[in-house]
Design brief:
Blueprint (H helix, E strand, L loop, with lengths): L12 E3 L11 E2 L3 E4 L8 E3 L8 E6 L4 E5 L11 E4 L4 E7 L8 E6 L4 E5 L11 E4 L8 E3 L8 E6 L4 E5 L11 E4 L8 E7 L8 E6 L4 E5 L11 E4 L4 E7 L8 E6 L4 E5 L11 E4 L4 E7 L8 E6 L4 E5 L11 E4 L4 E7 L8 E6 L4 E5 L1 E2 L5 E4 L3 E3 L3 E2 L1 E4 L3 E4 L9 E2 L4 E8 L5 E11 L4 E3 L7 E4 L6 E6 L5 E7 L5 E8 L3 E5 L6 E9 L2 E9 L1
Parallel strand pairs: 33-39
Antiparallel strand pairs: 1-3, 1-29, 2-31, 3-30, 4-5, 5-6, 6-7, 8-9, 9-10, 10-11, 12-13, 13-14, 14-15, 16-17, 17-18, 18-19, 20-21, 21-22, 22-23, 24-25, 25-26, 26-27, 28-29, 29-30, 32-35, 34-37, 36-38, 38-39, 40-47, 41-42, 42-45, 43-44, 43-46, 46-47
Length: 531
């Protein structure tokens, strides 16, 4: 856990309409940034004023408060409001703690070793904080009903001392003194992040905790009475910061994914539905990944991942394949030193967007999920003769790259029937493709000003090394001229008292050529294809 005297080093939130710095079939528009306060360390989204639009909240480590940004449903956010919390607020969660139908806030305070509960009034405003003791160095917070009494409880991992604090709710907005238990069967594991889900399908809330110093995830299976079994250690990679749950392989069991700060990757651990998990499979992301979230960003029915990368100032999006594996990450620029990421639909288009709390730039980046660009492949002709000039052009975006060595809008001689693919990139860096097929024929017909009884033959065709030209009724002198598709003369020769001449064309490049034969006062033209 990267804290100095209970505090981290940055603050900000950016509204991300993002630049794609890597390829995947997903597109976000460039970041739009909204002011938070000094050193925002976490971000969540919920509807705090009950208007049907997603809002944002961030705890701000240096100014000891929570910023609330109310969404307009268009991807924009109103002026930020601030509500006092404890010392060094580092994480926040939201639920209805007093059962009045309005969302409340609970904030983990890393400096004052407690939890601030702020009750909401349903307008986006919150009452003064009430504090409840945790343990030494709270690092994260989440909620659930862990004792099955119908009231929401809170759970807080405490980095210093590796203790988990359970605070049981009374349904009125108040919480008990902490019930503390070790974060692991090992000492000094540095619990950094907590989530809850039912990992063994017994209908009781369980816990998964990312241990920074233990390089593992502690799994606590709930007993439904507020107690838990001894933790199981699930290995990750180097310095897991955060963890998220989803069904990544479509088997109906809850899986885990952990972001690993020093190995620059995400560990995916597939659950068996009984509380057991597979060995980790790691997928690369950006530099120093910290927070992680999961949703279906491209609406294909498969769970995807998003991770914020502190050192590279990006969010990495990894699209799931539905079998527990993920494609290469697409990276989108955000603010400076992004600490936390969350997802919601901020502009009402039914697509999940992203928001990043940016520690050094003191703001939130909101990243709107946009439609992939429509790219069209076009050709100057769909059928033409070999060697004829072909021009391929893309339309719909800003830049184009073609397969087959073609350059956009630059003519080139055609050779064989080919399907060409164009990759187009728009101004946001988002990419899509299209294809077009062009049929190329040999077209070896003869054009002549001779009489019908005069015949010219050319063989073989196509040609590799030697082309043979035979003229019936040849005169004393027969001139042969070979030109390329642009009309440039490449070979000229003359035959005397011969009906047939062989020409070595081995040095010519592959393509279509034209043979002009002057026999007395008669001229003949023939085409051949050089291979």
């Amino acid at each position: 856990m990267k804290i100095f005297s209970g505090f981290f080093l940055f603050h900000s939130i950016t509204l991300l309409l993002g630049m794609n710095l890597g390829y995947a079939q997903i597109c976000f528009s460039p970041a739009t940034n909204f002011q938070a306060d000094s050193l925002p360390y976490f971000v969540i989204s919920a509807d705090f004023n009950r208007d049907g639009f997603a809002d944002l909240a961030t705890p701000n480590l240096k100014t000891h408060n929570v910023s609330v940004l109310l969404g307009t449903g268009t991807g924009n956010f109103t002026t930020t409001s601030y509500f006092a919390a404890g010392t060094g607020p580092i994480s926040v969660t939201s639920a209805d703690f007093n059962k009045d139908g309005n969302l409340d806030l609970a904030v983990a305070n890393s400096g004052s070793n407690d939890v601030s509960v702020l009750l909401g009034n349903g307008t986006g405003n919150f009452g003064a904080q009430t504090t409840f003791t945790a343990s030494n160095g709270p690092s994260s917070i989440t909620y659930g009903d862990f004792d099955s009494d119908g009231n929401i409880d809170l759970v807080v991992p405490n980095y210093d001392g590796s203790i988990i604090s359970m605070l049981f709710g009374n349904g009125l907005g108040s919480f008990s003194a902490p019930s503390n238990f070790p974060a692991s069967q090992m000492a000094n594991v540095g619990p950094n992040y907590v989530i809850t889900a039912d990992y063994n399908k017994d209908g009781k809330a369980d816990l998964a905790i990312a241990n920074w110093d233990g390089n593992d995830v502690s799994l606590f299976l709930g007993n439904g009475n507020g107690t838990f079994s001894l933790p199981l250690s699930i290995a990750c990679n180097n310095k897991p910061c955060a963890v998220v749950s989803a069904d990544f392989n479509g088997d109906g069991n809850i899986d885990l994914a952990a972001s690993n700060y020093f190995s620059n990757d995400v560990s995916v651990l597939l659950g068996n539905g009984a509380g057991g998990f597979s060995t980790p499979v790691n997928f690369g992301v950006g530099s120093k990944p910290y927070s992680i979230t999961s949703t279906d960003f491209n609406l294909d029915g498969k769970a995807d991942l998003a991770v914020n990368n502190e050192n590279s100032n990006t969010l990495s999006v990894l699209l799931g394949n539905g079998n527990g594996s993920f494609g290469a990450s697409a990276n989108f620029a955000v603010g400076q030193y992004p600490e936390s990421v969350t997802s919601a639909d901020f502009n009402g288009d039914s697509k999940p967007d992203l928001a990043s709390a940016n520690y050094y730039s003191h703001n939130v980046s909101v990243l709107l999920n946009t439609t992939l660009p429509v790219v069209s492949a076009n050709a100057s002709a769909d059928t033409l003769c070999a060697g004829s000039m072909l021009t391929l052009t893309g339309s719909g975006v800003a830049t184009y790259t073609w397969t087959g060595g073609a350059t956009n809008a630059v003519p080139f001689p055609s050779s064989v029937t080919t399907t060409y693919t164009v990759t187009g990139t728009n101004l946001f860096g988002c990419t899509n493709t299209d294809t077009i097929s062009v049929v190329v024929n040999l077209c070896t017909d003869v054009t002549s000003n001779s009489s019908k009884e005069t015949m010219v033959s050319l063989f073989p065709n196509p040609v590799i090394n030697i082309v043979n030209i035979k003229v019936k009724n040849a005169g004393e002198k027969m001139k042969v001229k070979i030109t390329d598709n642009l009309g440039n003369s490449v070979i000229e020769t003359t035959a005397f008292l011969k009906n047939e001449i062989s020409v070595n064309v081995q040095s010519l490049s592959a393509g279509l050529y034209f043979v002009t034969i002057l026999n007395g006062d008669k001229t003949f033209t023939r085409k051949f294809l050089k291979q």
